[in-house]
């Protein structure tokens, strides 16, 4: 009761004082009534004001009351200077919002532990070594037979769980005509019990579902999918669906919030690993292995144990490899197994975006610092104009801490208002950024909960920011010496010094942000203008499935049928489109030579495909309908350079070492990009089109209409009608496929540009404020100088010299910081060197321009000072 | 802030003792009662009585209610 009443009393302080006064008055009145002398009574009673104050201190919490008084006063101060306060709050809000937004993304993708029991005991199996491309890499794919052996070996120390990569998979609850896509993940049945996940309906998979290959046709759906697809209908349990030829029964729903172990993807359906064809293949790496250590078990002994088994298995496997170059065999054997903690799961999205998110995090932090420096300058300038007020407070007995509190509370008002607006900004912008990360066909679904973590971060940020920009001005205000301040003679330069340091800092950070942004923008520019070697204009790719697999004639029939549709220019087929992420590679040997070190890429294409893609011919001929695979090949320029030393390879032959196939080269074409935009173009050999066992291939359709997607639904229908068993699984434009390789760069470039603009704006405003203030401070001096004959040019130079030297210092510091920091970002750049003159000069010139612009009003103001009025008013 | 005072504790005790015998007294009456009970020896400093009363009230030892005295003035009576 006591504490609560003391808190509530805070808000009725005035009436409380009246009450106490009344009580004291009644005491005195009674004493007088009793016949005592009024003067004697008052003397005996003592000062009623003091008694009232000490009573008040008892009735309410003193420090809280002073805080309340300060915050009311601070609010009034803010309201008094509406424009500056709004500017400060908005600039801070933008920075805090950007920071919170970045934190939400980084937290959701990289930091937040999975919603499973004891995520800190979760480890992931990785293999580290030299990859196919000769670069150091860390892989997380595993093969099932190896997994079984490892699981048995460490079963007393850890539970090993196989969890496949999530794939959008075609499935149907009814006929083939009603195919839909769902994100499917194959998991060990053990996963659910090990993770402590409970069913929301039905039952979950168990260890008993891990026993026999291809005989556990059960499925568990995620709560999210259950809600979206079935509206949480309990009868969904027991329904069946078909993937390919397998019929699965839904046996249960996993409880929220578990949605798989890949942040960035939400799994819809969990199937037992036993239902994946890869279970029996020693060479298929199709899942990740997670290890859950038992309590009290250290990871190192488990890792050593697993390493020993891994090594043994690798040595066994290597015996089966033929036609591998020696170096590659060594690399294969040199791989090392790692057991790393993965409390927040593992996903490609994490791997792809970790460096860019980090870079963005640093950029927004810099913007926040710039905003803080701005507000700190503002507060310092204000503290100057309030020096007399502070001096008065000190002289009537305010303590030093009390003044610090006064100024800090005002800063806190700014920070918390800014944090509130910034929170709204983050709430709106974080999902927007996620949608920008998305490759078009594979929408990332990143859960972005706004919970105590985000709230806590926001509050901590607001507090930190308050101290950052409020502490220096507050200490300064409290250190006021009343005598000199009231006389109006405090050294004005000491304040400007702090402000100048802040300006230098601002400029340094601004330079850094501009510099790094410039590199990101240049990277995106180069990558998006990278020549692909083919024309993507009006090109549609129709990923088509034939179930069961159909012979070539029927594929040709479907292609002929498509050619009859009006608005279609050309139709051709390939195993998959270029730049789709698919690829097949292998080693090549020419003549009797040993296989090459550099792998070549292969793609099977129909006659006319090269023309349809508009890949130019150098020499030779296209495939004919009579060409069969294997037998002939068409190669690209890089292939000829790599394996034939640039001689015309037509008529020569080479051997593809996997499968020992001899191919004769009949055509030579120009380079076209196969895998991605960054790597140099790979040596590529095209082979005659042959439907493959999976029954998948892609029709390449060039339309004559400007928007190729307008024909998508007609094409889809037509393929269904053309022949029984054919079905379109995915339609994408080639442009989409090309752009997915620059999604990350575009995101970085866009956001970096945005932050660069914000930083520039803030730095400009800050500079303007400081100059304006210094002119105000020195107007008397300027007046005198003009009176004794100074020219406007001298005045302008005098006013701006200090600040511009600070800009120069800041710029140099920024440059040093920039050059030091780009080393950490190199992986994100493409064909841009941080030492290029252009990327160095551009930010410097921009900052100089903004500085000049910001200085202009202050200079004009300075030279317009009329010495007569100025000197008279002083 | 209440000043450290060795008499403060005893003042609290005195007030509580008086109120336990004769509840519903107001400040001035309590003071007169202390003086009377001690045979004019103890004179509680008049002003400091009130902070002590307020402290005891916040601590929940005593409760205050407003009464209207004959003179029309209001005063808080303690019990």
How many beta-strand segments of chain A? Answer: 24
Query: Which descriptor suits the 3D outline of chain A?
Result: globular
Q: In percent terms, what proportion of residues of chain B is strand?
A: 15-25%
Low-confidence stretches of chain A: none
Radius of gyration of chain A: 37 Å
Oligomer status: heterodimer
What are the secondary-structure elements of chain B, in order, as H or E?
Answer: HEHHEE
Percent of residues in helices of chain B = 40-55%
Strand tally of chain B:
3
Summarize the main sheet of chain A. 8 strands, mixed
Strand arrangement, major sheet of chain B: 1-3-2
Between the first and last Cα atoms of chain A, what is the distance in angstroms?
59 Å
Q: Helical stretch count of chain A? A: 27
**Low-confidence parts of chain B, pLDDT < 50 over ≥5 residues?**
1-6
Q: Mind summarizing the main beta sheet of chain B? A: 3 strands, antiparallel
What does this structure look like?
The complex is a heterodimer of chains A (874) and B (79). In chain A, 52% of the residues lie in helices and 16% in strands. Chain A contains 27 helices and 24 strands. In chain A, the strands form four sheets. In chain A, strands 15, 16, 17, 18, 19, 20, 21 and 22 form an eight-stranded mixed beta sheet that branches. In chain A, strands 4, 5, 6, 7, 8, 9 and 10 form a seven-stranded mixed beta sheet that branches. In chain A, strands 1, 2, 3, 11 and 12 form a five-stranded antiparallel beta sheet that branches. In chain A, helix 12 runs parallel beside helix 23 and helix 17 runs antiparallel to helix 26 (837-863). Chain A is globular, with a radius of gyration of 37 Å. The mean pLDDT of chain A is 85. Residues 1-6 of chain B have low confidence and may be disordered. At the A-B interface, helix 1, helix 2 and helix 4 of A face helix 2, helix 3 and strand 3 of B.
């Amino acid at each position: 009761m006591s504490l609560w009443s003391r808190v509530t009393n805070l808000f009725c302080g005035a009436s409380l004082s009246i009450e106490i006064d009344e009580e004291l008055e009644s005491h005195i009145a009674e004493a007088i009534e009793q016949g005592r002398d009024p003067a004697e009574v008052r003397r005996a009673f003592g000062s009623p004001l003091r008694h009232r104050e000490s009573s008040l201190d008892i009735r309410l919490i003193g420090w809280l009351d002073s805080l309340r008084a300060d915050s009311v006063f601070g609010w009034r101060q803010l309201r008094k200077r509406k424009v500056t306060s709004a500017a400060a709050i908005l600039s801070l809000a933008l920075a805090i919002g950007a920071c919170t937004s970045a934190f939400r993304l980084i937290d959701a993708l990289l930091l937040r532990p999975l919603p499973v029991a004891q995520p800190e005991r979760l480890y992931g199996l990785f293999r580290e070594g030299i990859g196919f491309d000769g670069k150091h890499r860390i892989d997380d794919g595993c093969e099932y037979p190896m997994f079984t052996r490892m699981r048995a070996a460490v079963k007393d120390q850890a539970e090993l769980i196989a969890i496949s990569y999530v794939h959008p998979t075609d499935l149907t609850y009814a006929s083939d005509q009603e195919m839909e896509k769902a994100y499917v993940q194959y998991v060990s049945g053990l996963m659910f019990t090990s993770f402590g996940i409970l069913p929301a309906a039905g039952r979950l998979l168990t260890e008993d579902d891990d026993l026999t290959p291809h005989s556990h046709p059960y499925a568990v759906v995620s709560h999210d999918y259950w809600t979206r697809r079935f509206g949480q209908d309990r009868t969904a349990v027991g329904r069946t669906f078909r993937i390919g030829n397998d019929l699965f029964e839904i046996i249960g729903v996993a409880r929220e919030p578990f949605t798989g172990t890949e942040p960035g993807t939400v799994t819809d359906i969990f199937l037992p690993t036993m239902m994946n064809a890869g279970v029996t293949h020693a060479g298929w790496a199709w899942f990740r292995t997670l290890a859950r250590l038992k309590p009290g078990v250290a990871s190192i002994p488990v890792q050593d144990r697993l390493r020993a088994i891994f090594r043994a298995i690798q040595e066994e496997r290597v015996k089966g490899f033929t036609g591998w170059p020696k170096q590659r065999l060594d690399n294969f054997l040199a791989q090392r197994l790692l057991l790393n903690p993965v409390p927040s799961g593992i996903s490609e999205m994490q791997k792809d975006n970790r460096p860019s998110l980090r870079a963005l995090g640093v950029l927004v932090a810099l913007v926040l610092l710039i905003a803080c420096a701005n507000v700190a300058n503002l507060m310092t300038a204000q503290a100057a104009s309030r020096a007399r007020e502070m001096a008065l407070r000190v002289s009537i007995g305010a303590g030093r801490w009390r003044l610090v509190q006064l100024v800090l509370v005002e800063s806190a008002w700014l920070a918390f208002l800014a944090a509130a607006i910034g929170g709204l900004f983050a709430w709106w912008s974080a999902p927007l950024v996620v949608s920008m990360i998305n490759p078009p066909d594979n929408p990332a679904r990143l859960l972005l909960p706004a919970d105590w973590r985000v709230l806590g971060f926001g509050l901590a940020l607001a507090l930190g920011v308050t101290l950052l920009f409020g502490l220096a001005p507050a200490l300064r205000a409290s250190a006021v010496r009343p005598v000199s301040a009231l006389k109006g003679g405090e050294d004005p330069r000491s304040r400007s010094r702090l402000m100048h340091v802040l300006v230098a800092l601002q400029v340094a950070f601004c330079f850094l942000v501009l510099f790094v942004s410039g590199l990101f923008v240049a990277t995106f520019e180069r990558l998006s203008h990278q020549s692909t070697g083919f024309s993507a204009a009006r090109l549609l790719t129709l990923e088509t499935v034939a179930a069961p697999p159909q012979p070539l004639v029927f594929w040709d029939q479907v292609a002929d049928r498509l050619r009859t549709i009006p608005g279609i220019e050309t139709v051709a087929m390939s195993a998959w489109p270029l730049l789709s992420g698919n690829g097949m590679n292998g080693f090549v040997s020419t003549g009797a030579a040993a296989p090459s070190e550099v792998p070549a890429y292969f793609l099977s294409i129909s006659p006319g495909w090269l023309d349809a893609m508009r890949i130019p011919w150098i020499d030779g001929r296209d495939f004919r309908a009579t060409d069969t695979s294997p037998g002939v090949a068409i190669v690209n320029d890089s292939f000829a350079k790599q394996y034939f030393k640039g001689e015309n390879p037509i008529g020569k032959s080479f051997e593809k070492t996997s499968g020992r196939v001899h191919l004769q080269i009949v055509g030579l074409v120009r380079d076209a990009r196969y895998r991605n935009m960054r790597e140099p173009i790979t040596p590529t050999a095209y082979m005659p089109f042959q439907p493959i066992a999976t029954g998948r291939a892609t029709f390449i359709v060039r339309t004559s209409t400007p928007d190729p997607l307008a024909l998508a639904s007609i094409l889809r229908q037509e393929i269904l009608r053309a022949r029984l068993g054919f079905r379109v699984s995915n339609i994408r434009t080639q442009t989409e496929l090309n752009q997915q390789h620059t999604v990350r760069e575009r995101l970085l470039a866009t956001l970096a540009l945005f932050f660069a603009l914000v930083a520039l704006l803030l730095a400009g405003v800050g500079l303007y404020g400081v100059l304006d203030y210094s002119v105000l401070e020195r107007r008397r001096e300027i007046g005198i100088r003009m009176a004794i004959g100074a020219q406007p040019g001298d005045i302008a130079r005098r006013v701006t010299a200090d600040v511009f030297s600070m800009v120069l210092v800041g710029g140099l510091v920024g440059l040093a910081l920039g050059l030091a920091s780009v080393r950490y970002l190199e992986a994100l750049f493409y064909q841009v060197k941080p030492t290029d003159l252009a990327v160095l000069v551009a930010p410097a010139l921009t900052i100089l321009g903004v500085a000049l612009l910001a200085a202009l009003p202050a200079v004009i103001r300075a030279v317009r000072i009329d010495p007569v009025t100025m000197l008279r008013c002083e | 802030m209440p000043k450290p005072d060795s008499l403060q504790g005893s003042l609290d005790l005195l007030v509580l003792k008086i109120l336990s015998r004769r509840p519903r007294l107001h400040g001035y009456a309590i003071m007169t009662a202390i003086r009377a009970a001690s045979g004019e020896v103890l004179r509680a400093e008049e002003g400091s009585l009130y902070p002590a009363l307020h402290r005891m009230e916040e601590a929940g030892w005593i409760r205050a209610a407003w009464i209207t005295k004959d003179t029309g003035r209001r005063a808080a009576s303690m019990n």
